[in-house]
Amino acid sequence: MTTKLFGTPVRRVEDQRLVTGQGRYADDVLVGQRVLHAAVLRSPHAHARILDIDVSGVLDVEGVHLVWTHDDLEGAMAEPLPLLIPHPALLHGRTQHALAKDEVNHVGEAIAFVVAEDRYVAEDAVARIRVDYALLEPVVGIAASREARTLVHDDVPGNVGARLEQENGDARAAIAAAPHTLSLDLTVERSACQPLEGRGTVARWDPDLGRMTVWTSTQTATGVRGCIAARLGLDLGQVDVITPDVGGGFGVKINHPWPEELLVPMAARILGTPVKFTEDRREHFISSAHERAQEHHVEVGFDDDGRVLGLDVQFWHDHGAYTPYGLIVPIITSTQLLGPYKPQSYRVVFESIYTNTVMVTPYRGAGRPQGCFVMERTMDAIAAALGKDRTEVRAANFIQPDEFPFDQGLVFQDGRELEYDSGDYPAMLEKIKALVGWDEFPAFREEMAREGRQVGLGLACYVEGTGVGPYEGAHVHVETSGKVKVSTGLTTQGQGHQTVFAQIVADALGVPFDRVEVTTGDTRRMPYAVGTFASRAAVMSGSAVHLAALRAREKALRIAADALEADEHDLEIVDGVVRVKGTESQIDLGTVAVLSNPLRYAFDEASKAATQFSVGDPGRPPVAEDDEPGLEGKDFYSPERSTFASGMHAVVVETDPVTAEITILKYAVVHDCGHLINPLIVEGQIHGGVAQGVGGALYERMVYDDAGQLLNASFMDFLMPYVTEVPAGIDIDHLETPSPLNPLGIKGAGEAGVIPSAAVFAAAIEDAEGFPITAMPISPSELFHLRQSHATEESP
What we know:
Layout: H1 15-19, E1 36-42, E2 48-54, H2 56-59, E3 64-68, E4 103-104, E5 110-116, H3 119-128, E6 130-135, H4 142-147, E7 160-168, H5 171-177, E8 180-188, E9 200-206, E10 211-216, H6 221-232, E11 239-242, H7 259-271, E12 275-278, H8 281-287, E13 294-302, E14 308-318, H9 328-336, E15 346-353, H10 368-386, H11 390-397, E16 406-411, E17 417-420, H12 425-436, H13 441-450, E18 454-466, E19 472-478, E20 484-488, H14 497-509, E21 516-520, H15 537-564, E22 571-574, E23 577-580, E24 586-588, H16 589-595, E25 599-602, E26 610-613, E27 632-637, E28 643-655, E29 662-672, H17 679-698, E30 731-734, H18 757-769, E31 775-776, H19 780-794
Helix pairs in contact: 6-7, 9-10, 10-11, 10-18, 14-15, 15-16, 17-18
């Protein structure tokens, strides 16, 4: 079979609908029908005990149908929400209730739930609820949490939810014996993803069928379905979860269930009318999820060539008030920190600690930006200490191409060995140097200096674990019309799944691309799935789709061989037609689909529908024991471990000597995600990630005061880059080292653009300014004050 579409930059089939405003999001569901609307009373305090909730002022408001507090919840609904990913080191995991019980632990925590005729009435009703609080001292920030003067949860000693240590070799001994040593303290501040669409859930209960249909803006339809069934006491088969278009996920929508994903279906069943909840922007800031906040202490020992002999990293991860997603983020930091390097010994220990702030779930990059920042700052510090070129020090520490698979001697987020499957980091380094003009930069710097301008060049390397398990499945159905319907359970938030999965099926099955229709995130079509996160869609669902298409192809050839009286090995499928090679004997794939069902339907103008039973071989049953009617293929892909993509970013920046404004002059990316399914989509992912990374490095942060109030919970105050701040052009080159772990040889690409951003901008700014950059993000005002501090330190 000749590959026709795999590796081709096919334009996305989704774009025409989405860019012309024809997307259908959760808030668009059941428009034009009678729907009740929900609003949530959220805590104005970061830490307080709830003494009393008075809802009497709401009960008689016209248009209000329901008001709940925790006291109104029963059974499983009254229990804490699930701890989704337990870990042996998470000794003190805590999750919130659907509605706060006795205590609130961050501003924005849900306390009461109101359903009314419209959102305006619901919001007015929420404002009438009176709550008496006993205020408690809030714990805000890592330093306050480590002091443990106050506890976020009374039963969690020292505010430490977990402590985890991993070591390969004896790092401390190696550092003590090393010719050179360095210590670094590095900080990344808290930030959060800001998707176009916030959280949204719509539910409809059909009492006649005993069936719940839920539309929700999620990254995991299957997980939400299971939670709703369990908490509402329904059979799994009574619940359908459908994910419409999702306006961005970035990790915040992988957490499930959000309180509203349970409260809305429960209200819809009780009221007998569909209920809708749509999160507003302030709610997203104060009640969804954040990430990034970590403080790191690094001890490193190295030789004269810059080879790392021992690396000892300790860090503290601020996981906010609750831990529904376990320790995934700090585990990823602790393991992916190593990047493409092979220190002779490595020890890492982290504490995941509670604060009275919004909880943490993965945000695009999921702990990797912090790890990359730590490792790349360490590499730059080693180069500075030795007076070496920064690329030389990196090259001295690279894992070599002939060393794959390479076992780092640690346990990754999936509980499997941290074993890299493939890569070629020396070749990638040469590509990025050529792309950014590394060797030519000193002359460019001198030219700029003559004009009174100062510029800097930064480089950052990373490895990204992708395609994490445990599984994904796919179903491929060839219709009698010749169209091919593909279903996979993972959800879509704009990644181009309808395009890339159609490319895979078109190649595997031998059908035209425009005959393939892909559905994602609908439990009616594919009830078992894991979700879209961790750059896993192409590896997991792509592989499952490929395997399912091959199953359908195998059956098509078997049926066609019987119909054409030919050997299966003499057949090929081209443009949806099965034909005998080298002859004119052929049969359309749609006709093969007809033949796959012993109960056939013939249509004509006279009878409209006539039923025909196939005669077949009288010596065997119409459907064999190992077969089933229809031309379909279904399969699941479950990998032995994650695949590891990699990349290198380089940036040239200019820092204004007066205003400290930071301007991007050039941005270059080299990326390796194995075989490219669609280079156009991969480059789109890189562009989007770089834009997000620019925001995380230079603009975006969550600013809390000592009382736990988020001071910038709006787009008036939370700065995001506009198109004017994002590089107009990004130079991109690809390296393809196929993964041996999946049938397509692919690796993920979804987070590639954002992972090294903090590291590469810190390196470039440091190169321009001449003093260390140890905390990110960095704004012009911070750079201005750093200049003043550095000048003071240097003055006699």
